[in-house]
Amino acid sequence: MTRHAPILSDPSPTLARVAKGERCAGCGICAGIAPKSIVMEIAPSGFARPVQGCNLRGSQEARIEACCPGLGQAAARAGEGQDPLWGPYREMKSARAADPGLRDEAPSGGALAAIARHLLASGRVDGVIQIVADPQSPSGARTALCESPDAVSSGIGALPAPSSPLQDLSDYLARSRRYAFIGKPCDAAALRALAWRDPQVARAFPVVLSFFCEGVAPAAGQTGLQPRCGVCADVSGLTADLSVADAAQGESFVLARTAVGAEILAQAEAAGVLEVSAADPAALRDAQPVLRARRRALFARLAALRLLARPIPRYHGLDLRACARQNPILDNLRSFAGTLRESLARPK
Q1: What are phi and psi of 144, to 5 degrees?
Q2: At CB < 8 A and 24+ separation, what contacts does 32-38 make?
Q3: How many angstroms separate the Cα of 295 from the Cα of each of 179, 227, 242?
Q4: Does some domain include residue 249?
Q5: CA Rg, the chain, in Å?
Q6: Distance from C-alpha of 110 to C-alpha of 90, rounded to nearest angstrom
Q7: Membrane-spanning residues where (predicted)?
Q8: Do 199 and 114 share a domain, yes or no?
Q9: pLDDT, tens digit, for every residue of 13-53?
Q10: Which of 107, 110, 170, 337 has the most other CB atoms within 10 Å of its CB?
């Protein structure tokens, strides 16, 4: 990684706000927007964090503030299906790779890997950007650009290690090619937020895929989840075209959230790369007890942090109240009180 000489007289107020509240997701969108000023590095905490070496232009500061998932997220409510826990979707299916080898090798029946390979084989995209294991670090991860179906890793979605897949965004844009991006929900949200504001980004990334995420673990030698994960409202890839979740018995739940996602899912089935069947939304809730509980408890957790004047992300359209209503009142009170105790035990 190239280090830039520190020429910094004006530290970014946006990065400072995110750092003060320990709200960085480590996605790298800030480095992707300002590649000559910001690099991502593994901090002593074991998580990927931005390091600013040069002053930002005003336009860069504004874009980072608008797109950083540490500051907040908005979600559209469009979709025929609407589940407060998992967000809007056009259709939900149970799926697995038709290739027995990929099905056995990849997590959750290999549906996400099969879709990614199909996108390349069909010519819909020129490359797939995904997070893969880092051969230089037993518990690390790196970002890979795959330009052939065989290059797509079967381990998509299986790595909770720190990764910053958006830090090389400017390099991808310079190539004038079409990509499918596969990332954590926070990565997908950051990329989509930028694509909504920049037609060049939208053209370069016509497909965004994500997976249900239980949080990011630190690099080797550290314990605990990334602090931002404790206040994450999007555990299921709300802004992606397709979101994939683990199901029992070697299959995946696939949620097509957009018209593009529904089209890709139908084409992958028609091409014979996916075996698809009807899915029961109740089965998805049963298969995701950790994320179900986290979504239901978040409204109470955020209320406690707000009472203490602690920095929290701004969420719009993510149905947090509806999720909280699925919890017994006593459970919400426990979440509220537990967050108060936890926060008061830490320095402000």
Answers
A1: -125, 140
A2: 32/166, 32/167, 32/168, 32/169, 32/170, 32/194, 33/60, 33/63, 33/64, 33/67, 33/169, 33/194, 34/60, 34/64, 35/167, 35/168, 35/169, 35/170, 35/171, 36/4, 37/4
A3: 31, 16, 20
A4: yes
A5: 20
A6: 22
A7: none
A8: yes
A9: 999 999 998 999 999 999 999 999 999 999 999 999 999 99
A10: 110
Say which residue, 172 or 222, is predicted with more confidence: 172
Residue 7 lies in a domain: no
Cβ distance 332 to 300 under 8 Å?
yes
Pairing of strands 242-247, 207-211: parallel
* Cα separations in angstroms, 140 against 18, 161, 165, 227, 240: 24, 6, 13, 18, 24
Q: Which domain holds residue 234?
A: 75-288
Q: How many residues does the chain have?
A: 348
Which tokens belong to 290?
Answer: 């950790």
Count structural domains, the chain. Answer: 3
What is the spatial distance between Cα 297 and Cα 331, in angstroms, rounded to a whole number? 8
Rounded Cα–Cα distance for residues 177 and 343 (Å): 46
The answer to pTM > 0.85 is yes
Which residues, in sequence order, are bridge partners of residue 127?
179
Q: What is the DSSP string of 184-228?
A: -HHHHHHHHHHHHH-HHHHHH--EEEEE----PPPSTT--S--GG
Question: For 193-205, how does the pLDDT look when each residue is reduced to its tens digit (9 = 90+)?
Answer: 999 999 999 999 9
Q: How far apart are CA 108 and CA 95, in angstroms?
A: 9
Look up residue 150 and give its DSSP letter: G
Would you say 88 and 77 are in contact if contact means Cβ atoms under 8 Å apart? yes
3 lies in a domain?
no
In contact, 204 and 166? CB cutoff 8 Å = no
Torsion of CA 138, 142, 145, 150, to 10 degrees: 20
